[in-house]
């Protein structure tokens, strides 16, 4: 037993060394720096921060480098590191209406109050490979522009002024913290939103797409999508007032969804909401669509049996770290379990063969008697 343990340790050490060698790659090629990852692979960095629940571009870049570009592994590393950090306070809710917007668009109003700001987007590119990048060509000089600094009102505020969109309920209750307490079902909207913003982008996208294809009756317009930087403030007890401690980049999406109404409420639009660290349009829109689908009960709608309406299904399976852990554990040693099942199958086969032999013998005896 001792020899087996030591042999296993040596094998693991060798695996680690080989992994480090593979991570480095061809040593004749310059090593990738954290600043290069942070600045040039910023969308990957943003995803790691969002799903890792830790806003730190440098740490996210380190996790991407360490994981050889495997973003789920990088998210795992960030989540693990996050658990070692002390928590000494809580910030005030960020005011996204005061966001310094790099990008702000609406699919519901052409002349949106505050204006449309296209910003840095793939939306209007031709999706053709740019071989200038491979040749290290010079970048075209972009026009210099500062983010919109003045407060940009939300589109839904104007709809709310006409009372034709559902008003969000205001609660003084402190929302639960999914990072400290396990998810309980039935859940509430704050916890659902926390779970979705940490959820795997691909899974949330798939759920959102299912609602667009009719599995939840969830026709939506992007009322507003905005990307920019928001100030983060924290109350200091010794001072008696809040101070700004930094700023973070966020992507916010509010969808305007189909009419609803009842005997007591006039027809009005409803809404979905998504908020994600960094620039992550696909994730924030997907999150808003799934959020709206999960609100069927509070809005008095029928459950159509769609997967996106099933709170337990969506929230229990959207977390890629939990999913990865359970998926990948089956490649670890299961010798005892498998041997027990192997012996069971062999026993069942022997019994089946014996029964078949007895049946054949009985048939042969009957034929001989006839």
How does this model look, in words?
The longest helix is centred in the last third of the chain and has 35 residues, at 335-369. The chain is built from 13 helices and four strands. Helix 2 packs across helix 4, helix 3 (42-52) packs across helix 4 (57-66) and helix 3 (42-52) crosses helix 5. It has a four-stranded antiparallel β-sheet with strand order 1-2-3-4. A hairpin with a 4-residue loop joins strand 2 and strand 3 (241-260). The model is unreliable at 1-5 (pLDDT under 50). The protein folds into three domains: 2-82, no CATH class; 96-121 and 146-168 and 177-326, no CATH class; 336-365. The chain is α+β, with helices and mostly antiparallel strands.
Furnish the topology, listing elements before pairings.
Layout: H1 2-24, H2 34-40, H3 42-52, H4 57-66, H5 71-82, E1 100-105, H6 131-134, H7 155-161, H8 189-198, H9 201-212, E2 220-236, E3 241-260, E4 268-277, H10 281-293, H11 311-317, H12 320-328, H13 335-369
Antiparallel strand pairs: 1-2, 2-3, 3-4
Across the major sheet, the strand order is: 1-2-3-4
Give the number of domains. Answer: 3
Query: What is the global morphology?
Result: globular
The structure class reads alpha+beta
- Compute the number of helices: 13
Question: Largest sheet at a glance?
Answer: 4 strands, antiparallel
- Extract low-pLDDT stretches: 1-5
The total strand number stands at 4
